[in-house]
Amino acid sequence: MRLVLFRAWVVAVMIVLLRGAAVGGDGLGSVVVTIKGFRHHGGLARVALFNHEKGFPDDEAEAYREIVSDIRSGKVQVRFDDLPAGSYALSTYHDENGDERFNRGLFGLPMEGYGVSNNIGHAIRAPEFGEALFQLSNEVKDITVQVYY
Asked: Each residue of 86-139: pLDDT tens digit?
């Protein structure tokens, strides 16, 4: 009987330890991003994660991390892992023509769909870093972003 109880205790401890590691027991977190509202599946979704204001929202060279993904059924899901706790903002755009840049037209208005964390959309100016800011600790954070055209 003691052996059975000991084994049950060991299994319980292992489950707790493994769950802690899966959600950032090492002090790191993850962001799972679901992006919705693409008007078609042509082109690519370019997703940039920023940990500072410089370059936000459309200078991918200044991003902390970036992912490029195919679009399926009008949406995309990407995951950023091993992120230190802190403040982040996310931006995405629909690179419809595959030229790897966010195209703008007359007066700087967007020619391609875009979105940012907190779903801030402006018709006159680009969303600011502070408006799209979110906090991440040692967790798995789910974020949904709407694409605006």
From this structure: 999 999 999 999 999 999 998 888 999 999 999 998 768 899 999 999 999 999
pLDDT digits (tens, 9 = 90+) for 11-65: 444 544 444 444 445 789 999 999 999 999 999 999 999 999 999 999 999 999 9
Of 80, 86, 87, 90, whose CA–CA distance to 27 is shortest?
A: 86
**16 found inside a domain:** no
Q: Does 17 map to a domain?
A: no
Q: Which residue has the tokens 């899901």?
A: 77
Residue 52 DSSP one-character state: S
| Torsion angle in degrees (nearest 10) through CA of 144, 90, 122, 38 | -50
pTM: 0.81
The pair of structure tokens assigned to 135 is: 């906090």
Range of the domain at 139: 27-146
Phi, psi of 77 (to 5 degrees): -130, 125
